[in-house]
Amino acid sequence: MICPQCGTAMIVLELDNTEIDHCFSCGGVWLDIGELEKLMEDYSKGMVWLTELIPAEESTERRLKCPICQKEMEKLVWDLKEPVTMDRCPDHGIWLDNGELAAIIRQGASIDAQIALLFEEIFQKI
Ligand SMILES: [Zn+2]
Ligand SMILES: [Zn+2]
User: Which of 60, 74, 57 is CA-nearest to residue 4?
Assistant: First the structure.
């Protein structure tokens, strides 16, 4: 799959039976629909926060195209102390720019400790 941010071919990482596409060039991460929830330690808790995302219509960030269907993705904000803006294709998944996944983990999303450790090794920014 091609990175929607910089156009580099992404590398598939497998974590706990979850496939994550990672761009080593810009540091972004693509999660297919359902994968972010699967990474959450408590599945139902993951679902709750995913429904709390707010559409960011006024975002000035560049609109990205879904790496699967090429349709323009929607900007969503997870309204935390340190808000995280992500790109979502309602049919295919979520794109997180470099550091955004780290910001989610840092702010207490319930992610399995082992996976958090793997992320730490991979991204070295958490
Ligand atoms: Zn990239
Ligand atoms: Zn799509």
Answer: 74
